Amino acid sequence: MDYDTLRLFLNLSRSLHFGRTSKECHVSPSALSRAIQRLEQYVGWPLLERDQRRVALTAEGVAFAAHAAETLSSWQQVQQTLTRKTKVLSGELALFASVTACQTFLPPLLSSFRQKHPDVHIKLETGYAADALGMLTKGLVDATIAALPDKVPPSLEARVVVVTPLVLVVPASDCEVARQMALPSVPWQDVPFVLPAVGLARAAADRWFRKRKLSPRIYSQLPGNEAILSLVAVGCGVGIVPRLVVDRSPLRSAFRVLDPKPALDPFRVGVCTQKSKLKSPIVRAFWDSIDIPPPEE
Which of 2, 45, 105, 186 has its CB 3.0 to 4.6 Å from that of 60, i.e. a possible disulfide? Predict the structure, then answer.
């Protein structure tokens, strides 16, 4: 077993797709399959369940993925220690952020770090915001840009980057949903909602519904804010999303923004890492380079 094989397995444990991992790691599908088979023989347990339709981690695979992530992190720290005499930081920084975060405040956050440490390779994974903390706690990335709960788990270190309100988003077109929302007394029980499926925004929405003593009529539940805005734009319902996402959306002209009453809980977004990761010179350098952008006017 070598570090390259561990990297292949760790990528596969995230993607759960042999073809995708093959492309991302620049190995042939047959070479990837052989590497995973050799790894399973070495470990003595099946790490993956696979058929023609799906790939999934076994219980042993989940445990081994955590071991692989820890091992690679330790090896990276050793490499950094061995090369520290040159005073040039090199290696890899693995980050996870939503598409919105990548398009807004991630570039300014990375700018200073990139200028100071150009030999560090930044590996950036994107996905749904609700998955961010899970990626971090599983050891799959070094840091995330994520929505932060009021109480961050004690094993994590977090810095708030921006606080943005959650707002109601209404179609701007002349449709039934827009007409319902324009009435002097909104018939909330009849209004269809397009909501986050999971995550802190959904929890805040559920609390808001309870305050209004409202059992919402749910049109759809989606994992991403961009998908919510797409359905709102075509008149499917009223969405609940962070104001920051609305202001940056290319569909901005397709909907109206309402500040709900009572207000929804504010949405805090920040940089988060495991405290143990701060022992890594690369992660520490990234953390120390973070310059919180001033609030936009």
Answer: 45
